[in-house]
Structures are given as C-alpha cells and as structure tokens.
Amino acid sequence: MGRYSKVYAHIMARRSDSNVLFEDLCGLLSRLGFDCRVRGDHHIFTMEGVEEIINLQPKNGMGKAYQVKQIRDLLLKYKLRMED
User: How far is CA 72 from CA 4, 39, 40, 41, 64, in A?
Assistant: First the structure.
C-alpha cells in the first residue's frame, strides 16, 4: 500500500483528523486529480466536475481537523477513490 493510499484510508476510517500531515493532504488531493494554486500559506484545490473549492492552510505542519473532515465529506460525496 502506497503512502497516499494509507493517508486516504486514514481519512476515510475517521481516525484522528488532527493527526494528518499537511504535506500528505496536499499530495493526496493532487494524486486524486485536483489542481493546486498557492497564495501565501493558502493552498487552493479545484477539480473539474467538483463544485467545492478546498482551501487548506497548515498548522504546525499538520492539516486542520475541520479541513480533513471537509476533504472526507468531499471524497464521499463525489465517490473519489485512490487507484493503486
């Protein structure tokens, strides 16, 4: 199982949302096909076919818990999955 598959599984298992590296969140979204642009410390992810815009900011190198929950909800809503 690859690094981002593990991150995906961690997020979908609803384990500690505050215990996900920011770098891993950005990498996961990129792997899923999201486009990223950076404005300061804001990483803004968009994807064709997905209405929502994901705006992430790091907190001490980790993703914020509410942002991890937003990503999980988005993955479930659009049935986005990791392909190995």
Answer: 14, 23, 24, 21, 13
Ramachandran region, residue 14 (left: φ > 0; alpha: ψ -120 to 50; beta: rest): left
pTM over cut 0.85: yes
Can you point out the beta strands (E) in the chain?
35-39, 42-47, 50-56
Answer yes or no: are the C-beta atoms of 68 and 11 closer than 8 Å.
yes
User: Directed axis angle between helix 22-31 and helix 3-12, to 10°?
Assistant: 100
Residue 75 has pLDDT above 80, yes or no: yes
**Angle, CA 50 vertex, CA 43 and CA 46 arms, to 5°:** 20
